[in-house]
What does this fold into?
Amino acid sequence: ILDPPLVLSYIGHECWKTTPFLSVVGSRDPHMISKAWINLELREFLKRQRVGVVSGGARGVDFMAHQLAFQLDLPTVVFLPSGLHQMYPASIRQHVRSIVDAGGCLMSEYNSNLEVRKYLFQHRNRLIAAMNHAVLIVEAKEKSGTLMTAHYALSLGKPVWIVPGHPLMPSFRGSLNLVMEGAQILRGAEDLRLFFESELIS
It folds into this structure.
């Protein structure tokens, strides 16, 4: 990336050295069909392929993906928009042990005592876009941090895959717009497997 972090601090394990990763991002308030897709299709993919998850720890899609990973004893990396001693969101603190025990980590490029700032979300998102083999967008509005992450990934030449929704559903319009910018639609666990394996080979 053009502006790499000077320092990365973490709590947990150096899992990025040994595990292939998929970044998973999406709405903080996902539709019930997105939740069902995550619990069925993403779970099946992670369970069979043993791929780690990168995301930002926010409620909704991000945390659901992290939770799937540590429930399946897979490493997950949580990139924080704050310092490690001022974890945001605060709710992630109760899951630190589960994340670490499953081989994952919580990571930040900021001073350990820095509290969250609005501008740090976008700054942090470039790392979520970079530390992976691909980015999966489960559900995104037209203006969202999820789209920022997707655009970072596309600028890096990373594959971006989206779970499609109906064009009349506002919460999916951003996702569908990404198709016009080079993202690829996928249907389920089998598509994820095929796409991801092609990235490991290339």
